[in-house]
Amino acid sequence: MAEAPSRPAQVGGLGEKRLGTMAAVAQALAIGPMFSTAIVLSFVSNPINGAAFNTALAVLIAGLGVLAIAYSLALFAREYRGAGAVYEYLTRGAHPAVGIFASGIFFAGTLFLGGGGIYLGLGILTHDFWTAHISDSTVPAWWLLGLLFLALVLVLNYIGVRIAIGDMLTFAAISFTPMLILALAIIFQGGADGNSIDVFNPSTTSTHIVFNGVMLGILLFVGFEAAASIGEESHDPTRSIPRALLWTVGASAAFYVVMAYAISIGLGEKTVAQGGWAFDPAALDKVATQYIDSKFATLIDLVVILDATALALAICVTIGRGYFALGRDGLLPSFFARTSRHNTPWVGNLVVVIGGVGLTLVGLYSHTMDRFVGPQGLPSREFTAFLVAATAGSFAVELVYLFLAVAAIGFLVRRNGAWWQYVIVLVAIATPVLGFYGALDPSPHDTTNLNWLALYWALGVVVLSAIWFAIVRAIRPANVANAAAYAAEHHGVPPLDETLDYKPIPE
């Protein structure tokens, strides 16, 4: 007789199915569009391995590539709706072994990206804001401010996902308006040298340089898949989740293109080509001050912090529900499946404490980061730790994007997909591959390259995920064979294909 899979004696629920498309859109805003505009977009403009004055063109092409990835996820989201999202998609759309292994990479990578690293970013941003606009004599330590944001995120996610999502939408709406006003002000005033279509002309730099920027531009969109994590709490997830994935990526791509164009012409081609955007952390403040005024620059600083807070809320929702789903299916200890009286996965949410506190300690004490700090490098150890963690998390998540896109090919074969769907999915496969190439080449493979250190961190995540999967496979083979079964039984998910040898868990 086959071994019966083990599961928690009592499985908590995640609340009523009351969330709609706007809630899914709010969750997809885990990409942090304003935060990414202030921080990540400048990386794309890097004249050494980015797109320089063609940043807007690079972002446009990157957005189309990520839209293809979003379409691949939407194929799965139309049928599967478990709280583990990516875990369920690959388990049921490919194979349980693939789903479990990839979930380890995805949730650990997300922990680096937005479950831990974001609190270093929030601490640094708030510390600098306090110094510049409140007081430069009595400034709380950056790490204390970061931990305060961590506590806020945990409280809001504990008392209810609807409250957390409502806050995300509020923060996003407040943040979006000043950024758009800034872009319009620059465009209407003609920037430094007048409005120009040269930003969209690859001959302004070169095709190679544009594609370097494309590869880095993919990092702007990492996190959009977070919408899928609220599938079990949505009243019509097979419609709302795919819409949110596609709408959010499309709208964010348009926003990034507008902001990239505005900042590029605002600074001017010569300044951007010399690294005046990429290597100046105050570049956004400077254009805000120049084209509006210094008070508006202060407002821009504030909305970036608000948007980063919304990002932290969204990632906590994703991580909490991911570890909840794995605990519920017996792939992690059963206490991960516990929920609060507000129907939130409070134990799963607490995993962000590991990321937040762990990376804070790295920012405080790791001398490994010191080699990147200096007059020609990064400003501080904590900022370096933030960049390494964010890059490592992006590598891990982009690897899972590749898994999903490849699995989508098999998904289409089984469902007799149209030819144009295969074209989109092939673009989705190429996009993360280009993302890795852009981040690692032509940069040197040596101890002075931050991206290679981040790659080693990401490879560590892959190794740990493989070890975890091997242990679970050895001690709980029935749970592996029945991965994602709870969602199938309780949330109207179609059964696995017969080729996957699916065995429903007996009551």
Task: Calculate the terminal CA-CA distance, rounded to whole Å.
Answer: 16 Å
From the spread of the alpha carbons, the general shape counts as: globular
CATH C-level class is Mainly Alpha
Poorly predicted runs of 5 or more residues: 494-507
- The radius of gyration is 22 Å
Q: How many structural domains in the coordinates?
A: 1
- CATH homologous superfamily placement: Amino acid/polyamine transporter I
**Sheet with the most strands?**
none
CATH topology heading: Amino acid/polyamine transporter I
The oligomeric state of the chains shown is single chain
Q: Please provide the count of β strands.
A: 0
In terms of structural class, how would the helical and strand content be classed? mainly alpha
> Topology as H/E string?
HHHHHHHHHHHHHHHHHHHHH
Report the sheet-strand fraction. Answer: under 5%
Tell me the helix content.
Answer: 55-70%
User: What is the name of the CATH architecture?
Assistant: Up-down Bundle
Total of DSSP H or I helical runs spanning 4+ residues: 21
Whole-number mean pLDDT: 84
